[in-house]
Amino acid sequence: MKIGIPKEIKNNENRVGMTPAGVFELTKRNHTVYVQATAGEGSGFFDKDYKEVGATILPTINDVYDQSEMIVKVKEPIAEEYPLIKENQVVFTYFHFASSEPLTKAMIASKAICIAYETVEDEEGTLPLLTPMSEVAGRMSVQQGAKYLEKPIKGRGILLGGVPGVKPGKVLVLGAGVVGVQAAKMAAGLGAHVTIMDINMKRLRYVNDVLPNHVVTDFSSEYSIRKHIKDHDLIIGGVLLKGGKAPKLITRDMLKEMRPGTVIVDVAVDQGGCFETTRATTHEDPTYIIDDVVHYCVANMPGAVPYTSTIALTNVTLSYILKLADLGWEKACEKDKSLAKGLNIVKGKIVYEELEGIFD
Description:
Helix 6 links the parallel strand 7 (170-174) and strand 8. The protein is 31% helix and 17% strand. The longest helix has 22 residues, at 306-327. Strands 3-2-1-4-5-6-14-15 form an eight-stranded mixed sheet, sandwiched between helices. The protein has a seven-stranded mixed sheet with strand order 9-8-7-10-11-13-12, with helices on both faces. The chain contains eleven helices and 15 strands. The chain folds into two domains: 2-120 and 306-355, NAD(P)-binding Rossmann-like Domain (Rossmann fold, 3-Layer(aba) Sandwich); 131-304, 3-Layer(aba) Sandwich (Rossmann fold).
């Protein structure tokens, strides 16, 4: 198969769809891999690295799309890429269709085969291709939140870990999934007081078992959220509905109940966000303020640490990419039910149940 790896063109997206190590696994099986020139530089992988493992370097993104049967990316195609996608071409990437009607309609019109990383689901019900980026984003949410709590950037002026004689900051984490657990782990490591909320008691029991005693759990409800937001300094939204839009757990009126300089980080922004006031931002301009509350809603947080993120992503996507390349998408999805759940749009039709009728 001919596999193309284009350069990501979303704002400040420095990740790349595959490491040279991943490319080597494809070329040694006699697949052809086209890599756009400089595609890996942001992640610390250079054209010579790809050439050494048998890739062909092409000068433009148009060349990569034109010559490839399957495109392997990181982020969803943006408007400039829509016309490049061909009928029957396999596109394997994060799509998050539920948060973008234009993207969904463009991919339907393209009649391509759209396989979304975020809906590939294993037998245990986990999302193996979303997990590593959720781990990165969960850890980064605390790192970024701690920074934006600083007074020069309009935060409350709080050091999360405190110092002797001064109590630590308080972090509220909404969702006890991968993002939430990683965020709680990082915040606890800094010495902050952490409250993590969920409606799944199994997850709360897990958190209670594996995290230190200064991470406390609470069953999530609007009442309890309204209570906690009044005295927490950093609020992290990490909820997920598989393939669907995130629920709005914090509404506009709740901002007035928060203290000025509170920071909220919405890790669910790719799926529409779990705060009513969320709008996607970029690493170039990551924050905005509403009612004296600092919002950090960068839609590609792991793109800021591309070396770590690209390796972590290739670690989990490669086995599926090899199946798609070796067998073709139809046989691969027939043999691997986890991969089949990644099928979202096929030849102009929505085939993922959670998306059906979402934009009617």
